[in-house]
Each structure stands twice: as structure tokens, then as C-alpha cells.
Amino acid sequence: MSPTIFWYNGALIQGNKIELPIDEPGLIYGATVFTTLRIYHQSLNHPLTNWDAHSARLINSIETFGWQLPDWNRLRQGAEELLLHFPVLRIVIFPDGREWITGRYLPADLSQRQTDGITAWLAETPECRRSLPTYKTGNYLGGWLALQKAQQLGAKEAILINDKGHWLETSTGNLWGWKNGSWYTPSIDGGILPGVARSQIINWLTQNSASVREVTWDGEFVKDLNAIAYTNCVIQVIPIHTVLNQDQTLFYPPTHQSLTELRRLF
């Protein structure tokens, strides 16, 4: 069922439809930036909610594109209104600074995915590449197409690659792999989104004297991994037990003991 309440341009609106002008760049070109956050204990100030990091992500994108900054007090007011109804918020900013906030619920099968892991599909088709991958823009067609194709093949996620075939990220999160006593995550230089949860995990692992490295994930590297997972702010840590690809299906244990270390942050 679609949410029946959202926040748009300074107002709380009952319903599930938004009205936009026909020349709206966000509608025509996907000219918006957004961030999605999970609300812990119904508080924007909770460390795991990480409101400051999500705000910084929006500011960085808006300033890079030369857009107008939103009214931050009004935006926070909208978030405070909706967190009373939803555990997950998606905050969208238009080029002229208008804010649009929607809420949703956690996936019904989240606990099962976190425990049992999922199957992912390696998205080797060119149309599954993301536009401006280091930013979360409204033009998310490549990632969306990849996820749709993965679901058609019976997988829950898609793994995006670059033109060299290097694994980058999933359609909705960042990748993590374990081997030789260390955690590995794809390098930002390869063209990935520097996720908020990814940064939290890197900082947390470093502070706890755990080994974590940013490297290129090529075909040979991934074959030797002992475990793979993906993360984002909403789903936390999801193991990947099977990767479907054209050459060889890869299998990884979803209960590998290393995954416990990642889960400790949450």
C-alpha cells in the first residue's frame, strides 16, 4: 500500500500524489538529488540515523551542481513530522531548493535476508550503468533497470560493473568482501557512490583496529573472497551467498563468522 502522507515544499500533505509543472527539470531530466535514511529510535539525532552525514551529502551535491540550497529548518521540520509515521525517509531536493520527503517501511523479509543472505546478478549489460555514480541523483535508471533484470532472474539484487568489468556496488548499496584477515570494499576511484553506511563502517572498523582496504574488484579478486555482503543505511548488512553471471556462478557462505564483525556496528 502506498504511503498516504508526505512532505513537499513546506507542507505536510495527505495523499500519495505530487503535482509538478510540465517543465519541471526533476521530472524531465531526473534533475534532483536525494538521500535515504533509516530513523533509529524516532530521532534524527541518533548516531546511527546520522542526520549530519546525510545533510552533508545533499549539500555537497547541490553545491557541485550549482543549485539553490533548501531551507534546512523547513526540511528538518518535514523530516520530524514524517519520522513519527515511518522508519525510513527519502529526502529529495529540486534545483530551486524545494524539498520533497516521503516515508516507507522496512522490507517485510529484512530479518530473513540478513540471516540467510541473497542471490545477486552480475549486471554485465551496458544499460545497467549508473549516471554520475558518485552522486545520488534522480536519474537512477541504470540501477533500476539492473534491479528489475535481477528480479526477473530470481535474484534479489544486481551488482553493477564498469567498462573494465570491475565490480563496483549493488543497485542499492556498497559491497564488502572478506579474505586473508581483512575487509575489502571497492575503491571510490572506480566510480561508486560513497555511501553513508560505507563511511560509518570504515570508520568503525578502523577505530576498532580491524583491517579494511579499498581496492579494485576484478574477476580474479572476487573468486578468492571468503564472504561477500552489501550494506546501506536501511538494510544494514545483507550477505550475498550466490552471484549469477555469464561465466560461472559464484557461491559464498552467508553465515561466515567475519560477517558478525560488520553487524556489530548496528
Automatic annotation (TrEMBL):
Pfam families per UniProt: Aminotran_4
Keywords: Aminotransferase, Transferase
Gene Ontology MF, one: transaminase activity
GO CC entries: cytosol
Keyword presence, Transferase: yes
GO biological process terms on file: carboxylic acid biosynthetic process
InterPro entries attached to this UniProt entry: Aminotrans_IV (IPR001544), Aminotransferase-like (IPR036038), BCAT-like_C (IPR043132), BCAT-like_N (IPR043131), Class-IV_PLP-Dep_Aminotrnsfr (IPR050571)
Gene3D superfamilies in the cross-refs: 3.30.470.10, D-amino Acid Aminotransferase, subunit A, domain 2
Family: Belongs to the class-IV pyridoxal-phosphate-dependent aminotransferase family.
Listed name of the protein: Aminotransferase class IV
